[in-house]
Amino acid sequence: MLWVVVGGVLSAAIGGVVYLWAERMGTVGAGLAALRATALTVLVLLLVNPARIDRVRGGPPTVLLDASLSMGTTGGHWREARDTALALAGTPARVLRFGSALASFDTMPPEDGTTQLSEALRAAAARSGPVVVVSDGGVDDAGVLSPVLTQGVTVVVLPRDPVPDAALLDVAIEGRIQRGDSVPGTFLVSTVGPLTRATGRFEVFTGQRRLLVNEITLPPSPGMARRTFLLPAGLLGAGVHVLTFRLTTSGDGEPGDDVRQRVVSVTDQPHVVVLVNPPDWEGRFLASTLAEVAHTTVRGFARVRPDRWVDMRTLAPVSAMEIRATVRTAGLVVARGDVVPELAGFHGPLWRWPAGTEAATQSMPGDWYVTPETPSSPVGGRFASVAWDSVAPVEDLVPVVVAPGDWVGLSARLGRRGADRALLVGRDTGGLRSLTTTGDGFWRWDLKGGAAREAYRAFVAGGVDWLLGADAIRRISALTASPTVPRGQPLAFRWTRTPVPDSLVVRLSGPDSSFGSVLRFDAQGVARLFAPPGTYRWSAPGVAGAVGLSVVESYSDEFRPRPVTLHPVVRADAFSIVELRPRERWWLFVIVVLALLGEWAWRLRRGLP
Questions:
Q1: Are residues 250 and 211 in the same domain?
Q2: Does 57 map to a domain?
Q3: 312 and 458 together in one domain
Q4: CA distance 494 to 477
Q5: What are the pLDDT digits (tens) for 508-550?
Q6: I need a labelling partner for 208 at 20 to 30 A (CA). Which of 145, 174, 402, 463 fits?
C-alpha cells in the first residue's frame, strides 16, 4: 500500500503544478487537477495490484466427512456420521469425503487407510460459507494443522466406542532366504483395554499349512512389546511364498488388526559370503550392493578387532569357527583385505579386493581414471552401456601380472595419460573362477548416485554374474512394485530405468477377479494404484520381465483403537478467507476512463489543447 500512497501524493502534486501554478486557472484548475490526480492514483493502484485478505460470511456450509477405515470398524459410528454430515450440509453436493485423499460424497463404506485432514481444509477454504468437519477424532495430522485452516471451522466428533484389543502391529522378516536355512524374525504386539487373558497365540501359515505356533505373553494394557520367533530350517521350498502371521487372544474386540502378511522368496542358489578386514567404506558399500544385485542370500562379516568378528547386518558377534563353517559351504566368497585364515578350506569362486588395505603389499597412489574403451572379456557385455566418463577416479591401484589365460575386464590410466593398468582381472583355472579388483575407492561411485551408481552396480553385478553364472543374478525389472501394503493404502509401482514413461498398462490377477489399470508416473517414476485386500500377480504387457507378486493386507492401522486428536469445536463466526485484488474490481477501470474523459472535455471547453 505504500506505493499506492506515494503514487496518490505524486499524482496530486502533478495536477496542482500543471493547473494551479503553470496554468494559474484558480478554482477551475483545482477541479481539473482533482480529475487528473484521481485518474493517476487509480492507475497506480491497478499497476501495483496489492492483495487484501477478506473474510466472507454466508453461503451454504461445506461438510468434510471422515471416510477412513476407523469410522466403519468395531465401535465406529459410520452411519451416524454420514447422516450427520447430510443433515448439516442439506445437500450431498456440499459433502466431501476425506481420508487418504479428498473425494466427492458417496454412501459407500469407508476404505481409506489414513486420516489426513489438511488437504480437505484447503479445498473447503476456497468455498464460501462455513466449514464443518465430522470425524471420530483420530486424525493423523491434527497436531500439524495450520491455525489459518482451522480458524472458524466447526468440528463434530463421534468418538469410537472403547474396545479391548490386542494388535499385531508389525512383522520383520528377511524377504529373501536360502532354502534349508532357518528364518528368524521379530514382531510387535500392542494391547488396549481389559483383556480376558494375559497370553496369546502367535501362528505362522503359508496357505492353509501352519508352520509355527507359539504361546506369548502380552504386555500390560495399554502397552507395546517386541517378541521374536524362529521358523525351523526346511519348512519352505524354493519359490515365492506369502506368509500369514496371526495373533489370537481371548477377549479381543477388534479382529481387523490381528493378521499381517509378508512375501518371502526362497532360493536354491548358493549364498554369497563377504569378508571385510578392516571394516572400511569400500567393504560396507560392497556388501550392501551385493545384497541388492545377487539373486541369493548375502551374509557379510566384518573384523572390528583382531579377536572379534561381527555380522554386518545385525552387528552380533560371530566366532571364527562359525565364519569358517559358513565360508566352506558358500557358493562365492568376496574378500576385502586380509582374510587368509578365514578362507582355509574354501574351494570355490573367489573375488579379492586387496587395494587400500594391509593385504596390498605395494600400491601406486594417484587418480586412476577408467579407460572408456572396455577390453574384450566375459564381462564386457555388462559394461558396454556404462558411461565411464561419469565415474570418479579410483586410487591406490595395486599392480598385478596378467598371466597367460587371464583376462582384463576393466583398465585405468593415471591422470588419463600413460599406459593402461588392469583394474579387474579374471582367471578360470580348471573350472575354478576368481576375480581380483586392483583399485580402491569404488564406493564413491555408489555414493555419487546417478550414472556413477549404475556403473558401480553393473561392475559388481557383472563380476558376480561371471563367478556364479548368469542365473545367479537378479536382473532388476524395469517395473517393480511394493511386496506388501496395508489395507486402504496404494501399491507403489516404480519404473527403474530412464526415460520414465508417462503411463503404462498393468494387469492384476487376484483370487476372485482380474482387472487392468493405467499407471501414471510422477517425476520420481512412481505410480500408485489402490486395490482391495488380496494377493495379486501383476504383469505389464510389452515390458520384458515386468511380473511380480504383491499383497494388500487386511490389516490397517486404522483398526487399532487410537486416542482422539481432533476435539469438538463449535464456531459461531464461521467465514471463508479470500484474497481480493484491485484488478478484480471492474469499476476502478471505469473511474480511470471517466476521469480522463472529464479532464479532456473540460480542457476543450476552456480552449486548452
A1: yes
A2: no
A3: yes
A4: 10
A5: 998 777 889 999 999 888 999 999 999 999 999 888 878 999 9
A6: 174
